[in-house]
Amino acid sequence: MTDLTGAPGAALPAVDRRGLLARLRSDRFFLVGVVIVFLSLFLAAFGPLISPYDPLRSTGEISTPPPPIETWPRLLYETVSGQREAPPHWFGTDQSGLDVFSRVISAPRADMTIALGGALISLVIGTFLGLLAGFYRNWATEFMMRISDVLQSFPVFITAMILVALSGRQTGNLVLALALVYTPIFVRLTRAEVMAQSSRGYVQAALAVGNSRWTIAIKHVLPNSLVPSLVQMSVTVGFAIILTAGLSFVGAGVRPPTPEWGSMISIGAQQLILGEWWPSVFPGVAISLTVLGYAFVGHTIEAEFRET
Amino acid sequence: MIGRFVLRRLGIAVLQLLGVALAVFFLIRLLPADPVARLVGLNASEEAYAQAERTLGLDRPVVDQLLSFLGLSSDRGADGLADGSLGLSWVTGDPVFLEIGRFLPVTLELVTLALLISFLIAIPLGMASATRPGGIADRIAFVWGLFAGAQPDYWWGLLFVFLFFFILGIAPPPLGRIDPLLIEPSVITGFLTVDSLLQGRLDTFVSALHHLMLPILTQVFVVSGAITKMVRQNMIRALQSDYILYARCCGLSRRAVGRYALRAALTPAVTLVGIFYGVLLSAAVTVELVFSLGGIGEYAIRSILSFDYPAIQGVVLIVALVSLLIYLLLDIIHAYLDPRVKY
């Protein structure tokens, strides 16, 4: 799951000798991914400010279906030119009258904060602990690795659910739970890479010139060991988004009515079976596209660093 | 020889399980939750609170609680790992082990069938894309692996319900494992399909498969892309090895070369079974909820949300045990398949 190698034709890699920027500009997957990543960050910052309706207040119109797709251009023109007194419900409204479009674009504030926060904290802590474990091989770091083994043998979803449900469902607790669940991966990755780097010539050279071990670890080994962790990071953000939404879906995540994709899917699920598809389909499309965007970026980063 | 290998691995597995047991025991007690308040309600009197605390055994020192969880203390009856009961559920009062025994087969049935079908799709597709890089099968496998590898499975489950139940009407409503009008076959293994066949009940067998159709489709859809990608990688590695080069030099047909490479590529694929069994087991939590199957995932959600500590400990332990046993089984198969593996 963590490995995104394997583009078509990878068996006979053709070396592309153009510059990095030119290569990236012609990579369609990467471009789509970058657009999605920027959009997700933009909506996390400004989503609730630009949403046409208040994502927390009922509009009074219950279970309105979205307007047919062929009327969208006309509706858009009327909205922009100010001919309508109220903006249309692009994605319809749910059974309590909340505007689905407003909630879908407000949700990244919760989802992206939790997913990015959790992934970043686990990257920083995991890299630091992995550096320690790879550089100082003694009983203390050995003990730490065993703890990380035990943590990794826990089922991820159930562990996160326990952590969040028992510590209270605030945003901060969700971030910490995700950080704890994902840290062991980064510890293991960094440790393996540090151990591989430590036997390289440049470390011996740095030692011979008289650098202290700690200086070498921070200044030379760490930057060279970061690549696998950074690739893993982009994959982890995607999984973290799915995990955050999944926790809310089962009722152990962000509390409704806070706009959040997973809890929106869960609220709409009861009506879906009766044919009211829009309250849960649109947030799911948002999750799906966002995760895909991060996966595309991660795939390109990995391909770039493998060539060099 | 193999006996000693299995014994040593079993010994390690027991130690790992003990580690998991200790970790989950302390983890849930370190978190700031108040299970007593959750159980008696917020308006309970102080006496009722103290009474409930005594009944649950939470008034005792943590060391005492740990000893009785491990089954090493005799003062409070059936309450431990050592005698296999895993304690009594705080919500239902039944032994956790019996409850899990009812819920677990549902999940194992779903996950096993889903994994089997995923491999039946992934192996031919992975082979086809490895033998002709850049061909049509390779492109499909690449796009699918990138797309389906990270999707919210519960959402796809809902989409399938909408499409196959509401619009097309060929799937049953997502409410349980079997048509409610049928009498369930008596429980032998807990796997509905197997039990039906054992008792010659064709009607319940068909109904059970019908109800499993969409949950399996959901899991296969999400996981088979990733399996295809890994089969393809193994296959490419095998195709680049020296003996395949030799086979090519000897002028063997593409098909014959593919057969030799497949045998070499299948051995690492055994490890994949273990990895993806764990992935599907974890994903089953949300998928079961969508289809109300009543498996171990739903049991986990219920016990976690009601702060039922013995049940939470039991679920984590059992899920860890299942993964450990599967890894052990696969290591043994691996040792048989690949004569180079040392026990």
What's the helix and strand layout?
The complex is a heterodimer of chains A (308) and B (343).
Chain A: H1 20-25, H2 28-50, H3 72-80, H4 100-106, H5 108-135, H6 139-152, H7 156-167, H8 171-198, H9 201-209, H10 213-249, H11 261-272, H12 278-307
Helix pairs in contact in A: 2-4, 2-5, 2-12, 5-8, 5-10, 6-8, 7-8, 8-10, 10-11, 10-12, 11-12
Chain B: H1 2-30, H2 35-40, H3 46-56, H4 62-70, H5 96-131, H6 136-148, H7 153-167, H8 192-198, H9 202-239, H10 242-249, H11 254-291, H12 296-305, H13 309-337
Helix pairs in contact in B: 1-13, 5-6, 5-9, 5-11, 5-12, 6-9, 7-9, 7-11, 8-9, 9-11, 11-12, 11-13, 12-13
Describe this structure in words.
The complex is a heterodimer of chains A (308) and B (343). With 308 residues, chain A is mainly α. Chain A has helices spanning 20-25, 28-50, 72-80, 100-106, 108-135, 139-152, 156-167, 171-198, 201-209, 213-249, 261-272, 278-307. Chain A has a single domain (17-307), classed as Orthogonal Bundle (MetI-like fold), CATH 1.10.3720.10. Chain A is built from 12 helices and no strands. Mean pLDDT of chain A is 81; it is low at 1-13. Helices cover 73% and strands 0% of the residues of chain B. Chain B is built from 13 helices and no strands. Chain B has helices at residues 2-30, 35-40, 46-56, 62-70, 96-131, 136-148, 153-167, 192-198, 202-239, 242-249, 254-291, 296-305, 309-337. In chain B, 41% of the residues are buried. Chains A and B meet through helix 6, helix 7, helix 10, helix 11 and helix 12 of A and helix 1, helix 6, helix 7, helix 9 and helix 11 of B.
**Got a strand count of chain B?**
0
- The low-confidence runs of chain A, each spanning 5 or more residues with pLDDT under 50, are 1-13
> What proportion of the residues of chain B form beta strands (DSSP E)?
under 5%
- Share of helix of chain A, binned: 55-70%
Overall average pLDDT of chain A = 81
In quaternary terms, these chains amount to heterodimer
Rg estimate of chain B, integer Å:
24 Å
